[in-house]
Design brief:
mainly alpha; 2 strands; elongated; two-stranded antiparallel ribbon; 2 domains; 9 helices
Length: 241
């Protein structure tokens, strides 16, 4: 039973419990995908069914991770299956546990809204915050909860993304300048194509305006022009033909 109810695994190379970061990232990616799909479903159909179903699975996932064992959590099992052919990347379990406790808190907040059937901006922001955290972990291996835990505890050995071992950030000034240059080129190209694309439409619009002016003009010849037999001449003189 002690092996079932535990947080983290014992690996001979480390004297502390660890979590496979690859499993965690894969499960975060699966949860983010399902979460964003359920959010779009709500936006398009105004139906909360899929969003609430995902929220319930989110809550159960983190409860199992914290109070039973992460390896038995449904999304962790799915994630570990997806990356089963990859070499494990072991990280210290304590920062992950702190981050996932925050996940339980967010899940309890969502559970309160679901049980009481409350639709509010706070509920939406909670869901969006969960999706942002999942995206950061799955795409960039950035565990914000782990970073907060590191700030509170200096004696850590192996954190996700190696943030415990790195004393200073890598210098990326040169690459950042290249990125700015790329953004500037893209911006100039976009506005250049936009002006070229819509230039004919501006001319067409002015043509429509001029035609409208002609249509709005009173082209009914007066009685005196009709009596004198100058109806056609009057129409031509007033640009009505």
């Amino acid at each position: 039973m002690s092996k079932i109810f535990q947080f983290g695994q014992d690996i001979p190379e480390y004297n502390f419990k660890v979590i496979n970061e690859r499993d965690a990232r894969a499960s975060a990616g699966v949860m983010f995908l399902l979460g964003i799909l359920s959010l779009f479903s709500f936006i398009l159909s105004k139906n909360l069914f899929w969003a609430e179903l995902f929220s319930i699975t989110f809550i159960l996932e983190f409860i199992v991770r914290i109070f039973i064992n992460p390896v038995y959590a449904p999304y962790m099992l799915l994630g570990s299956f997806i990356v089963s052919n990859q070499k494990p990347e072991w990280v210290e379990a304590k920062p992950k546990k702190f981050a996932w406790v925050l996940g339980v808190i967010l899940g309890l907040i969502m559970a309160y809204f679901i049980i009481n059937n409350i639709i509010s901006p706070i509920r939406l922001l909670t869901c969006v915050l969960c999706l942002i955290l999942l995206f950061l972990e799955s795409a960039f291996s950035i565990c914000l909860g782990c970073i907060v835990y590191k700030k509170l505890n200096k004696k850590l050995y192996k954190c996700p993304g190696g943030v415990c071992e790195v004393s200073q950030k890598r210098s990326i000034k040169g690459r950042f300048l290249v990125l700015l240059a790329f953004v500037a080129i893209f911006d100039a190209t976009y506005y250049g194509l936009k002006d070229y694309k819509y230039m004919p439409k501006v001319e067409h619009k002015s043509k429509i305006v001029s035609e409208k002016i002609v249509e709005d003009k009173d082209c009914t010849p007066p009685q005196w022009a009709i009596d004198l037999g100058h109806k056609d001449l009057w129409l031509e003189h007033h640009s009505c033909k």
